[in-house]
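Sample entry (54 residues):
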Amino acid sequence: MDYEKFIQAHRETNADITMAALPMDEQRPTASGLMKIDQEGRIVEFAEKPKGST
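Predicted structure, serialized as tokens:
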């Protein structure tokens, strides 16, 4: 991960917080939190270590 670009994007968008995440496939791992984002990259749903489908 290029942290310089990450920090630059955070500053340019004047965001309150910035998160790094990896895309997941349909096999939803229960060892990780899952989030859904909108077209602009904003988090619209989050599930901490979900059991079953969300």
